[in-house]
Amino acid sequence: MVAHRRHKFILPVLSRLSLAWLSALGVVAVIAAGLAYSMTSGNGPGRVSLPVNGIERMARHEPEAASQVATATQTPGLRLAPPTLRDAGEAVMETIEGADGADFLLYPDELDFADSGENGGEIVITIAGAETKTTPVTTASLTRNRAAKIIAPDPDLLRTTPFGKAPQIGSDGRKAMHVYAAASPDPDGAPQIAIIVGGLGLNSALTQRAIDDLPAEISLAFAPYAKDLEFWTQKARNAGHEILIELPMEGYGANLDALGPAGLLTTQNREENLQRLDWLMSRFGGYFAATNYLGAKFSTQEEALAPVLKKLADAGVAYIDDTGAASLSDGSQGGGVIASVNRIVPPAPDPSRRNAVRRELRALEQIAKRDGAALGKTYAYATTLDEIAAWAVGLEENGFVATPASAVLQARASRH
């Protein structure tokens, strides 16, 4: 008998490669089938569309050279060298809690999204496991309902100064105090309360919170030394907040360095203060009024304050004072419109001052009941913002109406 040797069958090399390819194709087919199922079953990935102009990019700040601003035409008798902006950490920013300046936001419209693809200026983010049968997410659904936007700065309401564009009365007589004022809700007889939140722009997180978390009726005042003022003020106007510019003024016993290089001082002559005012007023556009930062001493000296108020009036800009110096002339003065605040709501960087904030908010309510309207002012601190946002939620139920500062200002002016 002949023994037969068994031989182990070995696939040819070509056959093994073919088998590997077939296996890979099988895996791809399974994945494709799963995706097809998820798209029809509602259990697969969903698409969330976000507008490109909502993207913000962080970039290191490069301080502007003074020469960029010093393009001024020299006027005999005046020094037109612009004030030098200070970096974070210097005295001017130490007066506001949490001031930072290490980073700044690059304006979204500086980014080039011309080739945005078939989504028409949107970026599509795929989130695994999201429901596709739900209503598509839109920009409007990501934000609270807001009042109408405040219009962008009108070129007809701007004049050229050695330091940039500053407000002026339009060729048709329009004034910034009216054009950039927020629409006022109908109080229907209810007492009105307006609040100004100042010190904005120095701390990006607090500025963002003030814009997003506070009702649109709250007016926002921006510090002139803040960075990215065009970005932040546009964001505030888009959210329906009317805006003001802060003017640093000399106070009693205050460190003059805290006022910054463009502070208005009693020791400066009229021309020097007005030159500094030109620089301050050209920092950004679209504000309906100016308000003081400090200034108890400057505001009590008529020879110092009067030229400032006249320049604001000639520019069509209102003025709101928190020192009490303007209380005797509340309303219209010299063609301008000015008002004094009734109460200062305490700046509260931590919860230990929460009760003080609540006490002043209640005081504003009592003033509004007595006079029909009340005007308060505060600064952007964490606890202060929290308390104002919570207080505003129940304001209508308590029989009050939140109103922009411009509405109280104009109501007072109409009585004079």
Q: Report the major sheet.
A: 10 strands, mixed
**For the terminal residues, how far apart are their CA atoms?**
132 Å
Quaternary state of the chains:
single chain
Write the CATH fold name of the domain at 155-414. Answer: TIM Barrel
- Give the low-pLDDT segments: 38-146
Global shape: globular
Order of helices and strands: HEEHHEEEEHEHEHEHEHHEEEEHEHEH
Overview of the molecule:
With 416 residues, this protein is an alpha/beta fold. It has a domain at 155-414: Alpha-Beta Barrel (TIM Barrel). The protein is built from 12 helices and 16 strands. Strands 7, 8, 9, 10, 11, 12, 13, 14, 15 and 16 form a 10-stranded mixed beta sheet that branches. A two-stranded antiparallel sheet has the order 1-4. A two-stranded antiparallel sheet has the order 2-3. α7 (270-281) crosses α9 (302-314) and α10 packs across α11. Residues 38-146 have low confidence and may be disordered.
Strands, helices and their partners?
Layout: H1 13-41, E1 46-51, E2 57-60, H2 66-69, H3 91-94, E3 103-106, E4 122-127, E5 158-161, E6 164-167, H4 176-179, E7 192-200, H5 204-213, E8 219-222, H6 229-238, E9 243-249, H7 270-281, E10 289-294, H8 296-300, H9 302-314, E11 318-321, E12 331-333, E13 336-340, E14 343-344, H10 354-371, E15 373-379, H11 382-393, E16 401-402, H12 405-414
Parallel strand pairs: 7-8, 7-15, 7-16, 8-9, 9-10, 10-11, 11-13, 14-15
Antiparallel strand pairs: 1-4, 2-3, 5-6, 12-13
